[in-house]
Amino acid sequence: MKSAKEAMEILAAYDLTKSYRAAAALAGCSHHTVARLVAERDSAGGPSTPRERRPMLIDEYLPKIEEWVEHSKGRVRADVANDKLLVLGFTGTERTTRRAVARVKRAYRLGHTRVHRPWVC
Hints:
Blueprint: H1 4-17, H2 20-27, H3 31-44, H4 62-71, H5 78-88, H6 94-111
């Protein structure tokens, strides 16, 4: 969901161009997002409040996935993690697990990147 600041930027881009696709290109989002925000603004008189994130089935298992990613140094596979989660009582699908593992691995890589520091002479 877009923040209020992002929504205002998208609406400003639409007001400037009067085109969903052109505003989307300027704002870096989908033209469907622009259309939804414009419709909300026109019907309610302003942008709506940001939606709350819905809880997901995988949320209570995320600490365990993070532990596995950290222990394996980012090498754990999502299908292996899914098998382990099923043993722990997870009732979601493998696709949910793949998405969660990918998100956790992406965060792990951001925190563990190798930085090249050339010698200063």
